[in-house]
Design a protein that fits this description.
Length: about 850
């Protein structure tokens, strides 16, 4: 049975049990402050469990893309070193929201595994929650009694809270769970040791494949448990492990989920995969095929590699795979990007985003490979220098500070430093490195640490957002909670009527005031969490139940919504000018400027930028009235021509914003008429990543300020140049400057000619060879010309010139051709460069080095005399 058939049978089975089959949510979470990625199947249904949203059906089934590389659920370091851990994996799941409970969940799981998939019953074990006295939780006898109908009692195992009480995080929905484990060992092995002894003991062939979670509690921030309003079912079955069981393999990597990728790696690397757990080559291949899946899905869902947040995690995964390929597969050139096509072939049917975004994913990965391989090459030079310095000092351990700097600042893999050091008979200070790493993590945690208390509910009433229609509203606080962080003590409040727009869709959250006759509080930010609009204020009212007046900062809102509306016009204009391959890949909308990232593989020309600007400003001048569709079925909106962005999660009903022919699904605030935008000006166009361009622009008040500043600068230039025709005056200055440069160059050449004669006479005979060590203030270009002339004219010579031109130390070494086999210019210059705290290189006959320490030239001079 192929992996595609296994996946389809799961979905078909639960569809026959009246479950609605829904697509996977994006692997990247954009509007959840508690998570970066979907790390379990239940993530997209969290609001249903908490009661913040109504599910589209009471029974749902799906296969969900998941990523576990950060926080509580972090499998990254285990990947490649065993048969079943992964960064990205699929979680097959069936869900009940207040409908069926333990009886149906258990009986259907047994039916699917044993009757549909045909797993022998004698290979299965189940666990149930044994209870917990500290939590005042009883043993799950209900699940035990239900399981007895299907499996012998000696195969039902009590499990502790760690294994059999599932929690989403430090707070949130939770409940006891029942795990199903499968024993994949041979009959001979089973006869020696019972599977009972191996369940939950990390045996590679006695593994959990399905977890049935009976969601009935809510964990509060203070650690206490309360009953949820309704009982739910949340199950998760590891797709890759299920395939291993059904295809009768000993490793997930031996299933057809991974074998096509492994075959491609073998083809590209020339290395044979043998599946040995301890073989570094095989570990590297497992790392590569696992990580390419995680990175590809993340990029397809809109998360580009970057230096912060979720983007940093994706970059780290990708760089880990590049590092393994570099070290153990001898891949010094980009090649991972060639695996994307194989992944598309395997999974594109079930996950169409891979097909749609394939070119972008391929180009981004290739660019990241090229960049990191350059980092490795640069790092190798730094490591070599560090090793030479350590050896020259008679030490055996590389200095911790420099090793950590290589890792932390330059992104050079610490394990690669370790390997290179060991080849030279050196080590790194493992404890010191770990301490430095932990200290950095603690600093990072401290900077971002915050303590969030439980909500204090003043009134159970639906909250209402009124910010589309007004920016001031009479309101009161329905609930609040205290928040403590490094900046102090604050309070998050939820308002009965909130005009404050919560951060989302690229637009920053509103700020403003919450006040009444006796008190006034500054609203510092507004965000959305679990369906609630939350405003952060700088104190707690004496009477939290009093009536308040909420006021949005009107100027900031006006400018933000102008910038947001103009991103829609910009998007349309880019597609018209560059082509329909252009898609939005990210945005930032604030009161001062906008940033718009889009898919395009070439730098935009000045003509293209001018045309885009022209088209956007034409739409502004047309005074197009906003057409807003607040609750329109998503299919109807798409049928009307609305743009839906990949990687975004949309509900059944959406909001569509239309300005003439521009139609987009959007939850942000907008101008009522394009004329309110005023004017649009592109400030810059640059690369955000491979295949992604970035435009930064301004509109409205900021655009007016921009042109005022330009006028001021032109006036100041006119005054300095004493001319109203600024362009003509600057052209004249450029001509004069060019002429003067020519005169200076001619002067330098004459001066250099004068130096050559003196330098020729300054060579010292060292046996049968000649050495010149000379100090000068000539520029680098002149020195180079002279050295090349001297190495040709003076036989058996080594020429070393030390320059202090422009206050910067420079060392130049030339070797005559007849000494090329005896001396290396690059080796000499590297040694001398240590004295000026610098580095450099070149070829055997000519090399240069620059540095930071001008005073070190004297030491370099004395050292050079001993060549």
């Amino acid at each position: 049975m192929t992996s595609q058939e296994i996946r389809q049978q799961f979905l078909d089975f639960f569809q026959s049990k009246q479950h609605l089959i829904v697509p996977s949510a994006p692997i990247v979470l954009k509007d959840d402050p508690t998570l970066m990625f979907s790390n379990s199947g239940m993530t997209q249904f969290k609001d249903y469990f908490l009661g913040y949203k109504e599910p589209k059906a009471s029974r749902i089934a799906d296969t969900q893309k998941c990523l576990r590389v950060s926080g509580k659920h972090n499998d990254l370091d285990d990947v490649g070193r065993d048969t079943y851990h992964h960064t990205m994996f699929e979680m097959l799941g069936n869900w009940s929201f207040g409908d069926y409970f333990k009886k149906e969940a258990i009986s259907w799981a047994w039916e699917l595994l044993t009757e549909v998939y045909g797993i022998p019953k004698e290979n299965l074990y189940v666990t149930i929650f044994e209870g917990d006295e500290k939590e005042n939780l009883d043993r799950d006898t209900e699940a035990y009694d239900l399981w007895k109908k299907f499996i012998s009692e000696d195969r039902i195992i009590n499990g502790n809270k760690k294994d059999n009480f599932w929690e989403m995080g430090a707070s949130g929905p939770c409940g006891p769970c029942s795990e199903i484990h499968v024993d994949l060992r041979s009959a001979e092995e089973k006869a020696k040791v019972s599977g009972l002894e191996l369940v939950n003991n990390d045996h590679p062939q006695v593994v959990e494949i399905w977890n049935l979670v009976f969601m009935q509690f809510n964990r509060k921030a203070d650690g206490s448990l309360e009953n949820l309003p309704a009982k739910h079912i949340d199950t998760g079955m590891g797709f890759e492990r299920l395939c291993m069981a059904l295809q009768q393999k000993e490793s997930n990597y031996d299933t057809d989920v991974f074998t096509p990728l492994i075959a491609k790696v073998e083809e590209l690397s020339g290395k044979k995969y043998n599946g040995i757990l301890t073989d570094e080559k095989d570990i590297a291949i497992r790392v590569v095929v696992d990580h390419i899946r995680a990175v590809s899905f993340a990029i397809a869902d809109g998360q580009l590699p970057s230096n912060g947040g979720a983007g940093y995690v994706i970059r780290r995964i990708l760089r880990r795979s590049i590092s393994y390929a570099y070290r153990f597969l001898d891949r010094k050139e980009p090649f991972l990007y060639q695996l994307v096509a194989v992944l598309q072939e395997q999974m594109g049917k079930f996950f169409p985003e891979l097909e749609k975004q394939g070119t972008l994913v391929t180009e981004v990965i290739k660019s990241e490979e090229e960049s990191f391989l350059r980092t490795i090459e640069t790092g190798l030079i730094r490591v070599d220098k560090l090793i030479q310095q350590t050896i020259s000092e008679g030490k055996k351990v590389l200095p911790t500070e420099e090793v950590f700097e290589l890792y932390d600042t330059y992104g050079f893999p610490d394990d690669l430093t370790r390997i290179i050091a060991e080849e030279k008979g050196l080590t790194i200070d493992e404890k010191g490195f770990e301490q430095a790493l932990n200290e950095q993590k603690q600093r990072s945690k401290k900077d971002s640490a915050s303590k969030v208390y439980d909500w204090v509910t003043l009134e159970e009433k639906p909250e209402n957002f009124v910010g589309y229609d007004k920016i001031e509203s009479e309101t009161y606080i329905t609930r609040y909670r205290k928040v403590e962080n490094k900046d102090g003590e604050f309070y998050q409040v939820v308002l009965s009527e909130s005009p404050f727009y919560p951060e989302g869709g690229g637009q920053i959250g509103d700020k403003g005031l919450l006040e009444n006759a006796t008190e006034s509080f500054e609203v510092l930010e507004t965000k959305k969490e679990n369906g609630l609009i939350i405003s952060l204020i700088n104190g707690l009212p004496k009477d939290a139940g009093a009536v308040f007046y909420a006021k949005v900062n009107a100027v900031d809102r006006k400018n933000s919504q102008a910038n947001h509306s103009v991103t829609h016009l910009l998007h349309e204009a880019l597609r018209e000018v560059l082509g329909t391959h252009v898609e939005q890949k990210g945005s930032f909308v604030g009161p001062d400027y906008l940033r718009f990232d889009f898919s395009h593989f070439n730098k935009m020309t000045e003509e293209e930028l001018a045309l885009v600007e022209e088209k956007v400003n034409a739409k502004i001048k047309e005074s197009i009235v906003l057409q807003e569709f607040r609750n329109i079925p998503i299919q109807e909106a798409i049928d009307k021509g609305a743009m839906a962005l990949f990687g975004e999660k949309y509900g059944d009903s959406v909001r569509m914003i239309q300005f003439g022919s521009s139609k987009e699904l959007c939850g942000g605030t907008h101008v009522k008429n394009t004329s309110e935008i005023g004017h649009f000006k592109i400030v810059s166009e640059s690369s955000a990543a491979a295949g992604i361009r970035r435009i930064e622009a301004i509109s409205g008040d900021k655009s007016a300020e921009y042109f005022k500043n330009l006028e001021k600068q032109v006036a100041e230039l006119s005054q300095l140049l004493k001319s109203k025709d600024v362009v003509k005056s600057i052209e004249k200055l450029i001509e004069e400057n060019t002429s003067l440069k020519s005169e200076v160059e001619a002067f330098k050449k004459e001066k250099a000619k004068g130096e050559i004669g003196d330098w020729k006479n300054a060579y010292e005979h060292k046996g049968d060879k000649q050495l010149l060590v000379k100090k000068t203030s000539l520029d680098a270009g002149s020195v180079k010309d002279i050295v090349f002339q001297l190495k040709k004219e003076i036989p058996t010579s080594v020429t070393i010139i030390l320059s202090d031109a422009d206050g910067k130390p420079m060392i130049t070494v030339g070797i005559s051709d007849d000494l090329a086999s005896s001396y290396q210019a690059g080796t000499i210059v590297k040694d001398l460069a240590k004295e000026i705290q610098g580095g450099g290189g070149g070829n055997p006959g000519f090399a240069t080095a620059g540095g930071k320490n001008l005073d070190g030239l004297e030491n370099a001079y004395q050292k050079a005399l001993n060549i």
